[in-house]
Amino acid sequence: MITRLYYRNGVYYNLNCNGNVPNHAMLSVGYGSASGNYMIIKNSWGTTWGDKGYVFMAKDKGDTCGLSKFASYPTL
Questions:
Q1: What are the pLDDT digits (tens) for 9-44?
Q2: How many CA atoms lie within 13 A of 5 on its CB side?
Q3: What domain of life does the UniProt record list for this protein's source (predicted)?
């Protein structure tokens, strides 16, 4: 978690990120492949965090920080 606190830009990948215990919710809003495959994730900490409030999380490199383990969606 610590390295994500200081994320500023680029495609984020941390082999040691523990995704077994979720402690924060974020919203997946898209994907890209300019610098390798990544998911565009919106954080709730405002535009001063990360890349204007977003993080570009590496995709196809295993379970990046538990993102694929704890996905959810609303039902109405």
A1: 888 888 777 667 777 888 899 999 987 899 999 999
A2: 3
A3: Eukaryota
